[in-house]
Design goal:
The protein has 142 residues and is mainly beta. The chain has a domain of 93 residues: OB fold (Dihydrolipoamide Acetyltransferase, E2P) (Beta Barrel). It is built from three helices and eight strands; from the N terminus they run H-E-E-E-E-E-E-H-E-E-H. A five-stranded mixed barrel has the order 3-5-6-8-7. Strands 1-2 form a two-stranded antiparallel sheet.
Length: 142
């Protein structure tokens, strides 16, 4: 019965079950907020974790055509986790605060209990690919 919730029926008979496809894909382009850290929970594989900032900019005012109004910006911070062994190690070694990178992966929603024993929600991007676009030097930030 549970399987039927995830299966599309092409007909009324159970003989022609086809699994539906779905997609969980994220692409982010931004700057790294702090140097990555590597964590390892006992009995599990290590993970490299860092934050990535993306910016959304828009012009406020009456007319965007004649460039009137003020420019507003919103920064969104994303928690990136890299589990793939080769990518995890290269990311830990070479990504630095201020680096401009492109991340592809999937979004993951989870829960954890903080040190005060309070349940918290956590949204994480599980990276499948990290493309290094700059080294974060001042020249790249201008």
């Amino acid at each position: 019965q549970v399987l039927r919730q995830f299966v599309r029926h092409d007909s009324d008979t159970v003989t022609s079950l086809v699994l539906e496809r779905s997609m969980n894909r994220v692409q982010l382009l931004g700057r790294v907020g702090q140097d990555p850290i590597m964590r390892q929970v006992e009995g599990k594989n290590p993970v490299t974790i860092f934050s990535l900032a993306t910016n959304e900019m828009w012009r406020t005012g009456d007319s965007e055509v004649n460039q009137g109004g003020d420019i507003s910006q919103k920064t969104t911070w994303h928690r990136i986790s890299v589990f793939r062994p080769g990518l995890r190690d290269v990311t830990y070694q070479y990504v630095r605060k201020g680096s401009r990178i492109f991340v592809e992966g999937k979004i993951d929603y989870g829960e954890y209990t903080d040190k005060n024993n309070v349940r918290r929600q956590a949204t994480t991007i599980i990276a499948d690919n990290v493309i290094f676009l700059s080294d974060g030097s001042v020249r790249d930030k201008v």
